[in-house]
Amino acid sequence: RKEVEQDPGPFNVPEGATVAFNCTYSNSASQSFFWYRQDCRKEPKLLMSVYSSGNEDGRFTAQLNRASQYISLLIRDSKLSDSATYLCVVTVAAGNKLTFGGGTRVLVKP
Amino acid sequence: DVKVTQSSRYLVKRTGEKVFLECVQDMDHENMFWYRQDPGLGLRLIYFSYDVKMKEKGDIPEGYSVSREKKERFSLILESASTNQTSMYLCATLRPSRGGGYTFGSGTRLTVV
Fold first, then answer.
1. Distance from A9 to chain B by nearest Cα, in Å?
2. Residues A16-60: pLDDT tens digits?
3. Are B99 and A36 in contact (CB < 8 Å)?
4. A88 vs B contacts (CB less than 8 Å)
5. CB pair distance less than 8 Å for A100 and B43
6. Going by C-beta distance under 8 Å and a sequence separation of 6 or more, which residues neighbour residue B33?
7. Which of A36, A88, A100, A107 could form a disulfide with A23 if both were Cys (CB 3.0 to 4.6 A apart)?
8. CA-based nearest residue to B45, from B30, B32, B31, B33
9. Distance of alpha carbon A103 from alpha carbon A37, whole angstroms
10. Which of B51, B35, B38 is nearest to B102 (CA)?
């Protein structure tokens, strides 16, 4: 079993709609969680950290469910520019190496 | 903003050549990492370093070595390039604070022929 698993998609989303997807992790000792965004042929860029209480950044909402060992990302009012691959990232301890999921591809269409 | 610079965007090398991939960061971060990214396999950690002259193997270190002589520079070395090392190589530095994530360089797409 992979340490961090994601549905590869693609998720085809009409512009303006809401899309949500999850990421599961296997190590219960995991401490830090992140969502990264990667555009085609570009490097991954940090989208947001995920905190225990859940957090929001504009149209993006991240949630953490420790009991079930998954994190989620929800995108409201999808824009064409949201089309990208979203990578789930988990680390066991602060400052430790990060483990990446395979990514979820999102395609927002007019 | 942290800047992570990789020396080459695209590189073509021959089988058996020694290849150096350079990465430089400008924020005095201690933690630096080398990943490769391949379709269907995602990002896989090759080597990382927590300090000068310190290195640790990641998940797929075979066929690679690294050098960290100065804090700002972390080099990945392919001692004898092979075709299965054709990949996108990404260097990253890690913010030390809680909630800190990686900042990646723009990547080097290496093709070994």
1. 12
2. 999 999 999 998 888 889 999 999 989 999 999 898 888 999 999
3. no
4. none
5. yes
6. A97, B45, B47, B48, B49, B58, B74, B91, B92, B93, B94, B102
7. A88
8. B33
9. 9
10. B35
